[in-house]
Amino acid sequence: DYLSNDLLYINNRNGSFKEEAAKYFNHISHFAMGNDVGDINNDGLMDMVAVDMLPEKRKDRMQMLGPNAYDNFYYAQSQGYINQYMRNTLQLNQGMGKFSEIGQMSGIYKTSWSWAPLFADFDNDGYQDLFITNGFGKDVTDLDFVKFRTDISAYTNTNDKKAQSNQEIASALNERPGIKKHPYLYQNNKDNTFEDISEKWGFMETVYSNGAAYVDLDNDGDLDIVTNNMDAPAHIYKNKTNDAGKISPNNFLRVQLKGPAKNLLATGSTVKINYNRNTQVRFLSTVRGFESSVEQALHFGLGNNKMIDSLSVIWPDGKITLQKNIKANNFLKIKYSDGNFIQTEKVKPATATLFTAVSPSSLGIEFKDKHPDFIDFNFERLIPRKYSENGQGIAVADVNNDGLEDFFIGGAFQQTGKIYIQNAKGKFTGKPISKYADGVVDAGSLFFDADGDGDADLYVVSGGNQFTDGNKRYQHRLYKNNGKGEFTIDTTALPVMISSGSCVVASDYDGDGDLDLFVGGGVKPGFYPQCARSYLLRNDKGHFTDVTESIASGLQNIGIVTSALWTDINNDNKPDLLITGEWMPVTVFKNDGKKLKNITSQSGLSESNGLWQSLVPGDFDNDGDMDYVAGNWGLNCPFQCSNEKPVTLCYQDFDKNGTMDPIMSYYEDGENYPAVSLDYMVEQLPVLKKQFLHYTDYAKASTTKILESFKATSPPTLTCKTLASVFIENKGNGKFEIKKLPQQAQVAPLFGMMAMDVNHDGNLDLIGVGNFYWTDVVIGKYDAGKGLTMLGDGKGNFKPLLLNQSGFIVDEDARALARLETKNNQSLFVISQVLDSVKIFRQNDAVALKRIYPTQNERYAVLYMEGNKKRKLELSYGSGYLSQSSRSVVISSAIRQVEFYDSKGTRTRQVSF
Q1: pLDDT of 714-745, one tens digit each?
Q2: Which one of 232, 233, 242, 457 counts the least CB within 10 Å of its CB?
Q3: In 3-state terms, what secondary structure has residue 52?
Q4: Interstrand relation of 27-29 and 83-85 (parallel, antiparallel or unpaired)
């Protein structure tokens, strides 16, 4: 409770323990009450839940949430405290000692003043559900009451006045209502999310309940619940799942253990059952929830399964009892004294993973992002996150024409970017792109031959939010290569582009034989959510002309762009432009040979408004056209949205003081409400203090009511209709269909991504990185991402791998992701991280694979595999998030032939294997 950390004691196996909560958890609940442990997704790993006191209803939340605590939060962090947020937390065990906190995504994070959480399978469907008690005798967190109490105490300078003050506070406290709520019962949806079925299952009576226990009181094979209630009799909730007369009740198994003499209850034992390719695990500890003990029997729901293939008991001393072919609907009693132990299983050797982390220093790479903290919130109170922490891009190319790939990583605020040159031993030497770090913030970067002299020049986007709009530090830069990997800035090559940008991608959109550029505009500094302008730059013999308005009408102010792709959506050999950004749909500009036309409204993507961060191409369904994966903010956040009930963002200088005032809102109970608390709102709009003297008044106020204060009836408004990261299937004829990625891809914002065949089966897979730490401290850090690897089936479906299968573990604040090839045939994957060192992985089985390097004029390839299967591969200049990977084609064992094509669709060569 309060500031002190939750504690996690790890057994040292020598009779001692070590407290390591900070090692395993990125954040925890602030006012944690009870907790429980259980396997919510039947992956054999124990997950953990802790409950807090965040109210379910917005009205109650707004009467509890107070002033900005940014400085206090980071001071506590500097003193060694774990990040803490006032909400229930569900720590999903990812294996390898990694936990992802998914309480918001799972839907269980706000259950008011909660006490006892209990995992148990209440409907016998084979997955553990979640029961939570709550309630408190007096609502002492209401800020109107807290403010009253504080004001009274401020004037108690004599004993008499102190006594009078205490009497007034006591009187006011006695008049306070209680927090009297119904218990919550959440049904497991079998996808790491839960559905509130409290009303459906009869838990709507309001009580002050604390302790709770589950037990099968009537021996009918389902679990009943007993709760301890304040100032009221205890409640017994009879479970009707297995009542007589049910047509097809789910089956169950109950197991009671009797341990050795010194541990008769067998506490600390584990029981594992296997049936029909399913596994369930239970850990025997009767003490659960809040100051309570549950029944000693272990309960397993089995759904419609009638037979358990095997059951194993792992006793605390490591001995194992095994039973096979057990019928369902049994009450099994197993005694330690019966013996019948099987030989203790030997620890299996670790399965080979797809990726292995490589120490950057072993390769000569010493880059670490370091920059002074810039607190955007001090200047723009109502922005949802810091735009000064977008991270740095990575670009890959052979810059000195020695046949070896090198890379550039951008510099942060007051840090210069570096080019790392690869040598014949596969190691790298870094050198700054500039002698001086003059405050420029590097965003996206791109190697391409700007002037047609056969070497890789470098474009670097200037981004960030540290300077006022129009500051000369936002001028973008083009560095010319002398062919030896030595770069000089060309101040005449670009037009005036004093604009905070994001990404840069290249293609020959006009078919004249050179590479042109699209440069995405980021947020307009100081004027969120207005966007900085985007650019279409035509290459005129190494000098670039801004042709945005004449060639692509509407592109200039398309939105807060985060990622873009030049890609051929309809196989007409003309590069089209796909764009993602915040508060905008995935946007399609079709190339008709003369101009780029926005066809989003006809593409099937017009309702896809999201907080998109990244975009990668790939023929994921092997049908010969390009599909896409778009990384969004993810579903592990406090806001839910849909086409019918979007998150909205209206903006204007409402109080006419020269600053932009963005008001983000969401729907609850059919009404649109501001997302921020009263204190936050009046920091930005002080005039509202007069209208909302009490937190209660503001808690009831809709967004419409707020806008009426300024006579703003129809301010500009942006919408977000989906937060899910998605697969975008190309249906042909410029039409697309969106499909949500698996839940594992939704736990955090998805930034750097790459489509590749990681297991060499001929189908495209996906790897990705993400997280974002720099939000307001009430919302908290998005830190559940641990590195994503998903196997594709060649039909547009994906299966996430566990961390111990992939080895691709990236659990920091990651951004760009790029692949490069080394002298010794290693595929390396370089990841930029905010305020941290780069992270590098190698693909473990890639050494034996061939690589083919395309020429500059080769734009795509077709890969032929066994079984008449083929896949199109675009050879992009830039994709993902601020990333440019090697254009090389890695030839897996599944590939039999590769054909390369130029920008006109003419086959340039054919290579067989």
Answers
A1: 999 999 999 999 999 999 999 999 999 999 99
A2: 233
A3: coil
A4: parallel
